[in-house]
Design brief:
This protein has 313 residues and is an alpha/beta fold. 45% of the residues lie in helices and 16% in strands. It starts with a helix and ends in a 5-residue tail after the last helix.
């Protein structure tokens, strides 16, 4: 089962060159029932990456372009009057899928952003007094552009806390970009994903069964204490106006268990925890204004916390 997940990396690589951290982050999120926020400038294959993953994992995926005029019912679904039966019936929205691509989520107002809160946390949608369960597994992959701020609505802290990871998709190095252009020169087109030859190496049942095994990964009390020390260090860091909540600590723990399982181990090591601190914490903390003026970044503060926190042996 683990080999199937590792094979996903190879299959996604047929369509997306590089971005290995983002691929691994989404796989870990699927294993521990999390969601991911993908941040990067336009054109770094954020949407293509999720579509390729859905193809390799044999999952349904839906893309929603978030715009200022998008309404909550456009995402969750709504009651529609049926003229034939003379009654109202529920028409499912695009959220009823396995992988929801929420493209440019910060371009829609808070009212519509909040429509995803129940779906992300409870895996259900409540409309007209009735609760409807979402397909399993369910993952929201939301994208946002870090350089455009006009006409955007920053996600509130309560919603950011629902994301397991914030993954940064960076611009490629020269060799990687040359490989991208070479593929396009030979006819590759990201709009025709079927031409990439991606094979389906896993399915929904595989993901759900793997998630159960991840939950059984052993965590030593010393490692649990290490996670608590890291969480509490963010709350006392002078550069942070807001540190990590208990939910952030539990989600880091779940991600570390998934990382250990993917690495073929039955136990979590401190290295598993350290490797995931930045993607798991960077969107859950808030820099003080004076730290921003000094040019300090969140990742720099988190790296300092890792260096100064005692690691269990």
């Amino acid at each position: 089962m683990r080999d199937r997940f590792l094979a996903v990396r190879h299959e996604v690589g047929k369509a997306v060159v590089g971005q290995h951290e983002a691929v691994d982050g989404i796989l870990l999120a699927l294993l521990c029932h999390g969601h991911v926020l993908l941040e990067g400038v336009p054109g770094v294959a954020k949407t293509l990456l999720v579509r390729a993953l859905a193809e390799a994992l044999e999952l349904d995926s839906t893309r929603v372009q978030f715009t200022p005029d998008l309404m909550p019912g456009d995402v969750t679904g709504s009651m529609i009057y049926d003229t034939r039966s003379g009654d109202f019936e529920f028409r499912e929205g695009p959220v009823f899928t396995n992988l929801l691509i929420a493209d440019e989520i910060n371009r829609t107002p808070p009212k519509t952003q909040s429509a995803l809160l129940e779906a992300m946390e409870e895996r259900q949608v409540s409309v007209d007094g009735q609760t409807r369960r979402l397909p399993q597994p369910f993952l929201v992959a939301a994208t946002q552009n870090p350089i455009e701020h006009d006409g955007t609505y920053p996600l509130p802290e309560a919603q950011l806390d629902r994301f397991l990871f914030k993954l940064m998709l960076t611009l490629p190095e020269r060799d990687t970009e040359l490989e991208i252009l070479t593929r396009h020169a030979h006819g590759f087109d990201g709009r025709r994903l079927s031409d990439a030859g991606i094979e389906r190496v896993a399915d929904a049942a595989t993901i759900l069964e793997a998630g159960k095994r991840v939950g059984g990964i052993y965590v030593d009390p010393e490692v649990l204490g290490y996670i608590v020390d890291l969480v509490q260090a963010t709350r006392s860091a002078p550069s942070f106006a807001m540190g990590i909540s208990p939910r952030g600590g539990t989600r880091l723990l779940a991600a570390a268990q998934a990382q250990a399982w993917m690495s073929g181990r039955g136990f979590v090591t401190p290295d598993d925890v350290k490797a995931l601190i930045s993607p798991a914490f960077r969107h859950r903390v808030m820099l003080r204004p004076e730290a921003q003026m000094d040019g300090i970044t969140v990742d720099q503060v988190l790296a300092s916390i890792i260096d100064t926190t005692r690691v269990p042996r």
